[in-house]
Specification:
The protein is an alpha+beta fold and 89 residues long. Helices cover 33% and strands 27% of the residues.
Length: 89
Amino acid sequence: MIDLDDIYDFLADKSQQAAQRIVENIVGRARQLETFPESGARQEFLSNQHKQYLYLIEGNYKVIYRIEEQVIYIIQIFDSRQDPNKMKD
């Protein structure tokens, strides 16, 4: 499991500029949900759950979210190079 602070901290060791750019790109991708909340693909790995999960891709990262009663909940920002078994509900 990775969140934005973890992503920034990990990447900033090599380049703070690159870390900032990647985090900004992830946030920008997530902002598209304000206008197009259903624009993500279904996250099949979590389909056995009682809730429907969707995701957007930004670089190596998945922004995993769900929609409930017209509210968007970003559940996790997941590095897609990791084992998908590490994804949480």
